[in-house]
Design a protein that fits this description.
Blueprint: H1 2-39, H2 52-58, H3 60-64, H4 67-78, E1 89-90, E2 101-102, H5 106-112, H6 115-135, H7 137-148, H8 152-163, H9 170-181, H10 186-193, H11 205-232, H12 237-245, H13 250-275, H14 282-288, H15 294-297, H16 300-310, H17 314-342
Helix pairs in contact: 5-17, 6-11, 7-11, 8-11, 9-14, 11-13, 13-17, 16-17
Length: about 350
């Protein structure tokens, strides 16, 4: 009898406990529904949209950091676009900044039928292609080589040395090139050591492009590798471990894991480089070239400098610059579309 009485008491306790749990669950459910409705997240109730003014008041400190960069782009990038109108108007120094009178496509017709323009256009395309072919992949290769190094101290030393050329002034780089390639320079001394004759590199048009491209590779390789080294750190190490277990060597790991891992970064930078394809380094070319190397060294930017600034033919130079900008826009939009279709990565 005592056992039956104890069992009945335990059953009554369990029933009372279950009733309390049911009441608590019902109260929590009711409270949750009411809180969702109050917050505008319940079923059938749309959440309140945050307006621009509300976001600005809430995060005004963050938005204030955009003030100076926005002002810079407005003043130095967007407002000058209004000056493109003088490509279709006659401009005289001292007159209206928007030209004196309308001339239509006169200046565009002039450069289309100007043999000198098409020569500099060909040089611009050639130097742009050579720079893209040699200067763009070298930071990728350099980053992959650095990634294989296991001695951290040696790796840091190599990285620091490779970054230095990027911080050198273009004037210093041009001076170094003249010193190295002069008749008594280091390059000619090495050529003479192997029995060759001295070469006047900077006075021969055929040598300008190799000198320019090689100096560009030397100056940009180390700094350009920074982004790829950062992208390499995001690759999961477990992928390499699984590949090693499957018997993959270092070359196979690089081809099937490393390169696909940094492919989005490669495509993004490729699109950006193609966008500046026509803007070949104006400062360095202006410092390195001379009338003897015009046949291969003269590009659109230096031609615009001579025609527009030196000769005061601003309308003609603006028409050529507008043509160059349209080509650059078409190139970057095409490259972005191709990148989005092939690898799913794009700038917009």
């Amino acid at each position: 009898m005592a056992d039956r009485r104890a069992a009945a008491e335990q059953l009554d306790n369990l029933v009372a406990t279950s009733d309390e749990v049911a009441r608590s669950a019902a109260w929590v459910s009711k409270w949750g529904k009411s809180s969702k409705q109050a917050n505008g997240t319940g079923k059938g109730v749309k959440p309140a949209r945050q307006t621009w003014s509300g976001a600005l008041r809430k995060n005004w400190r963050l938005y204030s950091l955009l003030a100076l960069p926005t002002l810079y782009f407005i003043v130095f990038r967007y407002l000058p676009m209004a000056g493109n109108v003088i490509a279709f108007r006659k401009f005289r120094p001292g007159g209206s900044i928007f030209g004196e009178y309308w001339v239509g496509f006169q200046y565009i017709d002039m450069f289309i039928h100007d043999p000198a323009f098409w020569n500099v256009f060909k040089n611009t395309i050639t130097l742009g292609v050579l720079t893209l072919v040699f200067s763009f992949p070298m930071p990728i290769i350099f980053a992959l080589l650095l990634n294989e190094l296991r001695a951290k101290k040696f790796k840091k030393i190599v990285q620091s040395i490779s970054y230095l050329p990027h911080f050198m002034s273009v004037v210093i780089v041009a001076g170094m090139i003249f010193q190295l390639t002069s008749l008594q320079g280091t390059v000619n001394q090495l050529i003479g050591h192997f029995g060759g004759g001295a070469i006047s590199f900077m006075q021969q048009a055929a040598w300008f492009r190799p000198v320019y491209v090689s100096s560009d590779v030397w100056q940009t390789m180390g700094w350009g590798a920074i982004l790829y080294l950062a992208a390499l750190t995001t690759i999961d190490e477990n992928l390499y471990e699984a590949a090693r277990i499957d018997g993959a060597n270092r070359r196979q790991q690089t081809w099937h894991i490393t390169l696909p891992g940094i492919a989005p970064m490669i495509m993004t930078l490729l699109v950006l480089n193609i966008g500046s394809f026509m803007a070949v380094g104006f400062e360095k070319i202006l410092l390195l070239y001379n009338p003897l190397t015009y046949p291969t060294a003269d590009v659109i930017s230096t031609y615009l400098y001579r025609v527009g600034i030196v000769s005061n033919n601003f309308s003609y130079a603006t028409a050529i610059g507008l043509f160059e900008s349209v080509i650059g826009l078409a190139l970057v939009m095409s490259a972005n579309a191709i990148s989005r279709r092939l690898v799913g990565t794009s700038l917009w």
